[in-house]
Amino acid sequence: MHTLDLLAIGEPLMEFSEVKGPDGPHFLPGVGGDTSNAAIAAARQGARTGVFTALGEDGFALRILGLWDAEGIDHSAVARRADAPTGLYFISHGADGHRFDYVRAGSAASRIGPADLPAGLVASARVLHVSGISQAISASACDAVFAALAQARQAGTVVSYDTNLRLRLWPLERARAVIHAALAMSDISLPGLDDARQLTGLQSPEAICSHYLGLGCRIVALTLGKDGTMVAVPGDTRLVPARPVEAIDATGAGDTFDGAFLAQWLVCDDPFAAAAYANAAAALSTLGYGAVTPIPRRAAVEAFLAG
User: Can you tell me the distance from the alpha carbon of 259 to that of 10, in angstroms, rounded to the nearest whole number?
Assistant: First the structure.
């Protein structure tokens, strides 16, 4: 019996996001981390969500746990480590968009290995959601994700994978090999266009979608920014238009798309409709600063779609 709709595995991070104030820019504290953001986005659409990771025994961990409690996210499987810190990052803004600076080397989450996965946890979820970052933070974390994917396949849990390429964490050739091996064990591929072009060497969205279907994924939702999302299943590929807004900060838009897409797909079993819903949720998430605070709830997304 599934007790969770979605289980996310990855690294949550303490976030400090630059905002402009009357006395100049300053940094607002918050919580980030791609799979945690996606779990929160799914929870705000009504999905039963849980997370698996490790946190330090520090104040940053308490803030993250408090947020998960407030969002109704099950963190009972999360490990705590006294010998490693919780990771953190800073978001700053410039003419070229937002910049991320991380302090995460040796973090508690990066020390997770396959033996740390609780028995039955993956099987308890309808969908397992992981990302390239989940595997890039360390070799042991990479192996833990592969172990979770194998458990998912054995249990019949759907696997969702966001490529989320971060070349400051690992070289492109290794990222390509690991990510594509993981996608060959996944059901739903959620790449962004820029990442996919680097990983596949292909340029056109249609060719990229075909490539990921060829790896064995049965749904590909390729996000194209302001151009929307190309959704592909065997025998059918469609462009789902974006919902334009006056964006302020796109920090968590991709993660919001992931969580909203998966939550809606679990409701309607239609990837094209789920992408239309997720495009709207992602658009709304760009109307405020930081990764989590602007993530909309279902009522706001439905009102935006109806407007």
Answer: 14
